[in-house]
Amino acid sequence: MESDSYRELSPFMSNMLSIGMITSWLPGGRTGIFGTLTIFLMGWLLEMGRSAYTWFSERWRFQYSLTAEFTEGDPAYDWVLAFLSKQQVWRRSWNFKISAKTLQRKNGVESTEISKGHNSENAEYVPTYQKPQLFRWNGYWVEVSKSTSMPSYDYQAERTVCTSTIYLTVYTRDVSAISALVEHARTEYMEVSHPHVIIHTSNRSYAPFYWNECKRKPRRSLESVILEAGVLDSLVSDVQEFLDMEDWYQTAGIPYRRGYLLHGPPGAGKTSTIYALAGELGLEIYSLSLASSSIDDSILAAAIACIPKRSIFLLEDIDCAFSRAEDLNSNTNNVPFGMYGSPTKCNVTLSGLLNILDGVASQEGVLFFATTNHIEDLDNALIRPGRIDKKIQYYHSARPQATALFKRFFPISHCAPESAKEGASDEEKASLVSSLAEDFADQIPEKIFTTAELQGFLLTCKFKPEKAVREAKEWAENTLKEKSELEEKKKAKKEKIQERRDKEEVEKLQSTLMKMNGLNSKPQRSDSVATKQPNGEETKTTEDSSKPIAEPSIARSRSRSPSSTQGSDNDSWTITESNIEQDPDRR
Ligand SMILES: Nc1ncnc2c1ncn2[C@@H]1O[C@H](COP(=O)(O)OP(=O)(O)OP(=O)(O)O)[C@@H](O)[C@H]1O
C-alpha cells in the first residue's frame, strides 16, 4: 500500500506542475515561476497529507480490526447472508439482485419490508453488498463487502459460474468477537430455516468441489408419513440418541457416524421419511445421486468432506451405482437413453464408497442415509453393520396405512362428508370419516399398491370421501390390470433382450472356436510330410486331413457366485470341447 502511494505521487506531481504552468499563463493568473511553485507546493502538501492519512488508517485498521472471509458453497456463507438480512444492512444497499422466487435458496430480504405493502411475494430481493457497508453489531463496528470471482464456464452444468466471497471486518482486537458473530449467524440461520428443510445438491464435477445448489422445501410433519406402527418413532429416537451421544462415541473410541438404509418399493415413503426427519430435528440434507456419470470417487470424497457436522448425507437409489451392470451391458445399443437398460454409467467404485463409509474420507458427526428399491442387488460389504447400522424396510400399503391415508386426505376441518346429517357435530363427522376410511380400505387389496399410488387416486377425489369409496374398487381393478399388462410387456421385452444376448454370445463363441480350430489345424499342416514319389514328384500329405473338424458344443450352465450373498444365480456360457479332447492331435 505504502509503495502504491509513492507510485501514485509522480504522476500527481507532473499533473500539478502542468496545471501550475497553465494557470500561471492564463489572463489574470499569477505569472512567473513563483506562482507555479506555490501551486505545486500546495498540491504536494495535500498529497502528502492524503498519503499519511492512508498510511496511518491502514495500520490502525490492520492492528485494530479482524477480517473474516466467507466463500460461497461453504455453509457459513449462508449463515452470514441470513445474518446480514436480519441486521437489515440491506437498508443502506445500493444494489439488489432480483429474481423470481423459487425453491432455490437465495437469502433474500423480507419482501414485505422492501415493498412496503406492495405485492412482491413472487420476487426475491438479494442485496449484492458490492460496496462496503458499515453497521453496528453487539457494540462493534462491522464492515461488510463482497467480491465475485471471474466467470468461468462449467461444462457439466452448461452455464457460466462465478464464486462470491463475503468479507466481514470487525473493528476490534478481540478474536472471540468473530467466533461470537459466526455462532450468532448460525443460530439466526437455523431460526430462519426452521419452517423449511434445506437440501443441498451439487452439479460440480471438478475441484474445488462445493455444494453449489441449495433448495428449501416446506417442513413436512412426521405424522404425515404413514408407516407401520413404531417404525418412525424408533428411527427418530435412534437419530436423536446419536446426536446426543458424541462424548460417548469419543470415549468409547467408536467413529462418530451412523448409517441407515431405507429399502422397499418405489413410492413407499423412503424419501418422505428422510425429509420429515430432517425437518423434525432441524438437520440439513446434502444429497447426491450416484447415477450421475460426473461423480467419481474423488468427487464423492470431496463432497462428504464439505458436509458440516449434524447433517444428513443422502445417497438416493444407491443400487443404481453398482448393480444392474448385467442389464446395462446387455442392451445399450438398441434401447433409448433413459429407458430400461439405459447407458448411464456410474464412476464411483465400491471400494471408494466403502472408504467413505468407513471413515477414511468420511466426516464425523454425519448421518448417512441411503435408499434403494433393490436391496438384493447390493454388495454385502456395503450393508454390513458399521457401514449401515440400521435397515428399515418399506412395504406396499397395508390396511392400516390405507385407512390412515384416507383420514389424512379428508380432515373434517376441510371437508364435511356429503352423507353427514345437517348440523352434525365434529365427533359425528369424524366417526363418519373413520367408517368411510374402513369402507375404502375394504375395496383396496392389501400389500399391492404403494402409498404413492393410493395418494394419486385420492387426489382425484378431493373433498369427496364418498366418491373415493365408490370408485376405489374400480380404480384398484383397473390399476391392477394395467400393472399386469405392463409387467407382461416388460417380461416380453426382457426375454427378447435375453434372446438377442444369447444369440450374440453363441455367435461370438462359435467364431472363437472356429478360430481355435483354424489355429489347431495349422500345425497339422506344418506337420505335413513331403514325400518323394517314385516319379520324382514331391507330394505333401497331411496327417489327419481325412478327419472332420469337430464341431464344438456350447452349453449354458448356471453357477452360483460365491461373492453374491443373496445367492443370485449367474448364467454363463461354457464350451464343451469334448470332441476336441478326444482327439489328442487337436490339442
Ligand atoms: N408412507 C407414506 N406416507 C405418506 N406419504 C407417502 C408415503 N409413501 C409415499 N408417499 C407419498 O408418495 C410420494 C412419493 O413418496 P417418496 O418419494 O417418499 O417415495 P420413495 O419410497 O422415496 O420412492 P422412490 O424409491 O421412487 O424414491 C410423495 O408425495 C409422498 O407424499
UniProtKB/TrEMBL annotation:
Q: Which InterPro entries match?
A: AAA+_ATPase, AAA_lid_BCS1, ATPase_AAA_core, BCS1_N, Mitochondrial_chaperone_BCS1, P-loop_NTPase
Instruction: One Pfam family, please name it.
Output: BCS1_N
The catalysed reaction is: ATP + H2O = ADP + phosphate + H(+)
Q: Where is the BCS1 N-terminal domain?
A: 40-225
Compositional bias, Polar residues, is annotated for 509-534, 565-581
* Annotated region described as Disordered, given as residue ranges: 486-587
GO: which molecular function terms?
Answer: ATP binding; ATP hydrolysis activity
Stretches with biased composition (Low complexity): 549-564
Q: Where in the cell is it found?
A: Mitochondrion inner membrane
Keywords of this protein's UniProt record, alphabetized?
Answer: ATP-binding, Hydrolase, Membrane, Mitochondrion, Mitochondrion inner membrane, Nucleotide-binding, Transmembrane, Transmembrane helix
Gene3D superfamilies found in the cross-reference section: P-loop containing nucleotide triphosphate hydrolases (3.40.50.300)
| Cellular component, GO annotation | mitochondrial inner membrane
Major place of localization?
A: mitochondrion
Q: Where is the AAA+ ATPase domain?
A: 256-398
Annotated membrane topology: Single-pass membrane protein
Return the Basic and acidic residues bias intervals.
Answer: 486-508, 535-546
Question: Any keyword Transmembrane helix?
Answer: yes
Q: Which family does it belong to?
A: Belongs to the AAA ATPase family. BCS1 subfamily.
Q: Which PANTHER family does this chain map to?
A: BCS1 AAA-TYPE ATPASE
Protein's name according to its UniProt entry: P-loop containing nucleoside triphosphate hydrolase protein
The lineage is:
Eukaryota, Fungi, Dikarya, Basidiomycota, Agaricomycotina
